[in-house]
Amino acid sequence: YYFTSRTFEAVKDKNYYITKTNDFMNRGTYYFDTDGKYWPNGKPVDPTPTPDPTPDPDRPMVALTFDDGPNTANTGRVLDLLEQYGARATFFVLGANVTDESAYLLQRMSDLGCEIGIHGWDHWQMPALRYNALVERFENVKRVIDDSVEGGYVPKLMRPPGGLRDDNVRTAAKDCGLAVIMWSIDSRDWELKNPPKILDLCKKNIKNGAIVLFHDKLPTTYTTVEQLIPWLIEQGYELVTVSELLESRGQPVEPGAEYSEKIFD
Length: 265
Hints:
Blueprint: E1 2-4, E2 9-11, E3 29-32, E4 38-39, E5 61-69, H1 75-85, E6 90-94, H2 103-111, E7 115-120, H3 131-148, E8 157-158, H4 167-175, E9 179-181, E10 185-186, H5 189-192, H6 195-205, E11 210-215, H7 219-234, E12 238-239, H8 242-248, E13 258-259
Parallel strand pairs: 5-6, 5-11, 5-12, 6-7, 8-9, 9-13, 10-11
Antiparallel strand pairs: 1-2, 1-3, 3-4
């Protein structure tokens, strides 16, 4: 249902997802679920038919990845785009960002066939932490991810903040059942914050097997991928998860293994 202006007139609408927020509402149009939960990002685009989840090995592939979420302002908009184009991506989340207000975004990631990985509990540099602290943080993030997805979800990928890692980080990741995932293209969205420049950088460097680093907390990232996704599809690329990409290239995901830019050349 969605409610219009101060009269809160209910109008049935099936194409939306659920949130748990209790945001204050002024005059305007608001979207809710049947239990009265508010959808803060507006009505998503009409869903396209669900694509075959098995990638076509004869097509070139790109894996878009998003770090630092979930973000209640922007992650839902990125998911809208993926749903609109029948694409998938991988989200490396921070455990501290998974709250009552944002947990529904992880459910939606799972529903769309996207992959959820671990970026850490927060953005602390992992090499500065001892083994026991790393394991504790990994397990805490695994727990909040599992609790946020109906039926549970066991992440098998992690990406350290800033890409900083050492043997201690790799060992802790392995013992927690996680592979270490890097990237082959840094969009520099965190630095440039300029959609035309970010888009140009990505277009110049994209190739089959690329893993592209983005940050879904940035509004300029949404503006960039809004243009990048249809362009990639026009070029014939299939947008897949990191695990799908690796497996299609004969690189099954193994705990403790590190998949760096060298693998994707």
